[in-house]
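Researcher: Please predict.
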Amino acid sequence: MRKKMFLLAVLLLLALAMITTGCASPRADQPEPTPTVPTAAKEIILATTTSTQDSGLLDTLIPMFEEKTGYIVKTIAVGSGAALALGERGEADVLLVHAPAREKLLLESGNAITRDLIMFNDFVIVGSAEDPAGIRGMAAAEAFAAISAKESLFVSRGDNSGTHIKEMAIWKQANIEPAGNWYIETGSGMGDTLNITTEKQGYTITDRGTFLSRREQLSLDILVEGEATLLNIYHVMQVNPEIFTKVNAAGSQAFTDFMLSPEAQAVISDFGVDRFGQPLFFPAAGKNVEELGK
């Protein structure tokens, strides 16, 4: 009986020791868990035109930004009109677009709080080497008038993008409302539109950067270029976090600062030179629009 009581006492002491040990504070040399930053705070949504994506520029710049800052960029590549609409609804944190008139409206509405000049290139009118409408070397509006008069196939993006907005401005300058079997709309991005144009051997207007980046896959020539009205200007815009509380203001500011930085501007300056012998874009941070292309 005494032996049983002794064993029971030992077991109770052991159980008490285990409970006490389990409730003890962590050892002083044991590191405390590191608090983690919520994933959402490190993500930013970039709404941008397809030309920055199709040209390959963002494939170079975004990994640099992510490595430098720790942010993760979710890119939505659509036409500038659609990108600006995302900003207007607060469904993006930052915009990289090339539709100046529409950009100014967004800024004036208060839905965007900044608009910084980042880079530029130009629009060109391209078509088959045979050039059935004979537009080579013409002014842009004159070329569009000739295409319409001949009813030569013209392929439009038709997507309210910056390129489409520029196209419609040229048609307006030529006093023409394009319509008919000769005029087709893809409702798609610049890359797809160029592919359809080369397949059908028609004409289209494109930013030079996307055209040069895809030139090896296309059977199209640059037929009209160098006109002041064909300048293509890109701005970065921050969406207003006071109106849209879900906007990542810190991430938007970080992306803007990066795009304006000498590091990013140097990449823009050199991008495409090794492959095409010329840059696809020209850096423009700190410049006035009036200085561009001079």
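Model: The chain has two domains: 41-120+233-287, 122-230.
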